[in-house]
Every structure is written in structure tokens, then in C-alpha cells.
């Protein structure tokens, strides 16, 4: 679904719009038991690079939190006691939220002061002072507010609407779990900046990182 609309709060009179929303479902038993995957995409046509500041994390739920999940059940019975669904499914062993080597919690764009994000392909020699960094590219696009925060709000709205629908249905005991995957898409290059033990930043192109949406 393109141009998907959602509301930041239940009584919000003005809906916001997400670029792409996709849903997939898999029946896991012969009964009414489904696993749902919800993909939320926000796209920005940026030609300037984005730099993500990465750090190594201990790949445990204790430090990274849980993937975005809603639905039933939220607990499983194992080792003669009820445990959280994340522990019951052992998500730390296979979910991409945990097996990536690094996590990014800060980012910025780099663009030409005079040309905004339209600074690709120019043969003119540039100096360091010709460039600036930030999350408001050229004073026009707010990458955090119109990108990352919008994804956070869209996931929250999806969870809220599903919880309201589930409360009305008063379901019997069946499995209906939703896993949410917020994704930020840009046409520009991605770079990872990692500060190692010696305190010297190391940059790497075509970065593939997990960005925490919290």
C-alpha cells in the first residue's frame, strides 16, 4: 500500500502519511493461528551521504530491548513456568535485531552549504568549509522528524489500532502475532563511523546497521 495514512494519537485530527506499508501473513496451524509481518517504509530522495555513528553492543535483549511485536500470546510455557514470548521463541538466536555486530543510535547528513543535497557529480574542487552536517538537510528536509520519528509514530499507531481491534473481538485461545519492521530508505550513500579502542574514528561505505527506533 502506497501513501499509507495513520494518526499519531487516537484523537489526532490530522493524519500523517507513510510512503509504503506492506503486510504478509503465514498460517502456522490448521486452526486460526497466524504470524503477521508488517513492513513500514519511509523514503527520502537524498543524494547526499548519511553517516551513522556505530558502537558495539552486547547482543542481548537485556541491553537492546525487544523487536516490535504485538498480539497473542505474549508468554509461553517452558521449563515449568511462563516466560516472555521473546525468550520462549529464543529470538536472540536468530532475529536480525540481535545478530548484527553494531548498533547505531546517532546519525547525520553531509551536504554542500550552497547546493543543499544536490552535490553529487560536481567536478568543482571543494574545501571542508564548503560542507556542513546535520539532520535538516539544506534547511528543507528534517530527517529525524519526517523520517525516523514518523516511523516510530507509525509503528505505535499500528500497535494501538491492533490492540483496540483485539479488545473488541475478545478472542479465544489462538495465535495471532504481529512483527513490525520499520525501514528508512534513501538514495544516497551510507557510511558507518566507528570509534575503536584508540579513539580514532573509522569510516566504512555501504553501511548495513541496525538503527534503534525507540
Characterize the structure shown.
This protein is of the alpha+beta class. The chain contains four helices and 15 strands. Strands 4, 8, 9, 13, 14 and 15 form a six-stranded mixed sheet that branches. It has a five-stranded mixed sheet with strand order 1-2-3-12-5. The chain has a two-stranded antiparallel sheet with strand order 6-7. A hairpin with a 3-residue loop joins β10 and β11. The chain starts with a strand and ends with a strand.
Give the tags.
4 helices, globular, alpha+beta, 6-stranded mixed beta sheet, 18% helix, 214 residues, disordered C terminus, 5-stranded mixed beta sheet, 15 strands
Pattern of helices and strands = EEEEHEEEHHEEEEHEEEE
Mean pLDDT: 80
Helix content range of the residues, please? 10-25%
Instruction: Please tell me what the overall shape is.
Output: globular
Largest sheet: 6 strands, mixed
Residue share in β-strands: 35-45%
Query: What is the number of E strands?
Result: 15
Output the radius of gyration. Answer: 21 Å
Total number of domains: 1
Overall SS class: alpha+beta
Contiguous uncertain segments of 5+ residues? 209-214
Distance between the amino and carboxyl termini: 24 Å
Number of helical elements = 4
